[in-house]
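EI: anyone free to look at a 315-residue chain?
SC: sure, send it
EI:
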Amino acid sequence: MIRFKNAYSTRRLQFVSPAVISILFLLSSAAFGQTPSLDRISCVTKTYSSGGTDTCRAFLTATNSTHLYIALSSNNPAVTVPSGVTVSYYAGSKGFYANVAPVKTAQTAIITARLNGVSKSFKIALGPGGTSSAAMSVNATSIGFGSTILNTPIEQSVTVSSTGTAALMLNSASVSGTGFSLSGAALPATLNPGQSLTLQVQFDPTKTGSYSGQLTVSSNAATKAIPLTGVGASHQVELSWNAPSASKDPVIGYNVYRSPSSTSSYLRLNGSAESTTSYTDGTVQSGTSYKYIVKSVDAAGVESPASNATTVAVP
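SC: here you go
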């Protein structure tokens, strides 16, 4: 049986009594009368022999009833920190992360915090990590979207993993090529050994024809380029057939052939034997008629005689 499918681009004010207001004011004055200053900063790890992510925290001498912004900096490019952190209302400290990259020689990094003219520092010792190194793995060497109906976006997932012995600094990911776009994890990101993240690559053709592009993923370990391909189709033909009722050799799949109706020169459409009794041809052109035949294939790759031919006219 053969089916033909034609698809086209398609906040509250609360009033408090004076007595309560007075109590609240007294509590606030007692608890928060001291002007907060920067007390210290500290990180969990003081020494690194390879890359990683350190958990750090900036502490105040007192809490405050307004937001306070603490500026942060590092004197060594091997250790990166945010430009600053904001301490919330009535909080006495604020955490942040320090990303540590592997180094080849022993050196020191100093993280400095500044608030209202007061500076506090924390020192991290860095040493060469022997054989420790960052490594990146991507679970695809190429991404093919096949035939896709116009204005009908489809997605494929790509997983990036940290497979080395040091942290992977995933700097960026981008796509090039008309019809392709990228979404998913926010970058830059740090992946410790064994961690991974997923990116979503989308293909949304607006015109018929072949499309090509590239996904580029960059990190401190490597930069990988992954080819993208797809076909925009305004029409497609869906084929289905019955499996042979009896066969001396077990059938492992099927090959699908197509020919312009005006000739008998059939060309195979599928790259490898189809394991199911259906196939979608998304490479047809408007105003053309095609003939289709199917051949079953055994384990040795031997084909059966051709099925009956069926003709389809594409509008």
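EI: The chain has three domains: 36-126, 134-233, 235-313.
SC: 👍
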